[in-house]
Design a protein that fits this description.
The longest helix has 17 residues. The strands form three sheets. The protein has a four-stranded parallel sheet, with helices on both faces. It is built from nine helices and eight strands. The protein is of the alpha/beta class and 238 residues long. The radius of gyration is 19 Å and the shape is globular. Helix 5 packs across helix 7. The structure holds zinc ion (2 copies). One zinc ion (ZN) binds next to helix 3.
């Protein structure tokens, strides 16, 4: 078995070398794997070390953190591929403002690799229709589509809607972000989430207020359990 997988890896590496070299998005060196060269990929700030299973922030021994013990958020688990730090922040910003499929696939695949607990279905954090018209696409939906295909999970693309066009969370102090998101989302009456474990896909989690508010709406619609899947998690300044 080991020999077989070893050979498959070698074949994969040979095929990768046969692809035309493209400049690495981060350093400009030749990359045969598509977006970043293997050296830049290895340097990305992956979320490693012990962290709280609920909110994804560092916690000794991977136990529930004090904040989640005191006031559990509306979601039950967080999975993040990276820390929101250089150069992942640049990649995520690029994703937000340009619809580049290669970048979507790269970041979605990094997140899909971290998933160990399979939910029943996936939803993407919705954009308000006015914001969607302005941007032309919802980056969270692009990520969710790729992850749903990779993990063979149903994507409920129309289950939830953003009904309040709130100011961008990044424009507000952390303390005001919860209030800003209140009642921002609704689940469609026919959404098939009752009794289900639903995973929410988004690009970045900062305070968790947006995903928390959507998780609340999903639970009001009967969801049994909600996971937050994000490409990058903002870490507190230490
Ligand atoms: Zn590079
Ligand atoms: Zn926590």
């Amino acid at each position: 078995m080991f020999i077989l997988s070893h050979h498959l890896l070698n074949i994969g590496a040979i095929f990768a070398r046969m692809l035309p070299a493209q400049p690495c998005l981060l350093c400009g060196a030749d990359s045969h794997t598509g977006l970043c060269c293997s050296a830049c990929d290895a340097d990305l700030p992956r979320l490693t070390g012990a962290h709280c299973p609920v909110c994804g922030l560092p916690a000794p021994n991977g136990n529930l953190c004090g904040a989640c013990l005191k006031q559990p958020p509306p979601f039950d688990h967080t999975v993040a591929a990276y820390r929101y730090a250089f150069p992942v922040d640049k990649l995520v910003q690029e994703l937000k403002f340009r619809e580049r499929l290669i970048l979507v696939n790269y970041l979605a695949d990094a997140l899909a690799q971290r998933i160990t607990l399979r939910p029943d279905c996936i939803v993407a954090l919705p954009l308000h229709p006015a914001r969607l018209r302005e941007r032309g696409f919802n980056q969270s939906l692009l990520l969710a589509r790729r992850i749903a295909r990779r993990l063979d999970l149903p994507l409920l693309a129309d289950a939830c809607e953003r009904v309040r066009n709130t100011p961008p969370q990044s424009s507000l102090p952390w303390k005001e972000r919860d209030k800003n998101m209140r009642q921002a989302f609704v689940c469609q009456p026919g959404a098939a989430v009752h009794g289900k474990h639903v995973a929410i896909v988004d690009d970045v989690m900062t305070t968790g207020a947006s995903i928390g508010e959507l998780a609340r709406a999903l639970k009001q619609a009967g969801a049994r359990e909600v996971s937050a899947w994000v490409v990058a998690r903002t870490m507190p300044h230490v």
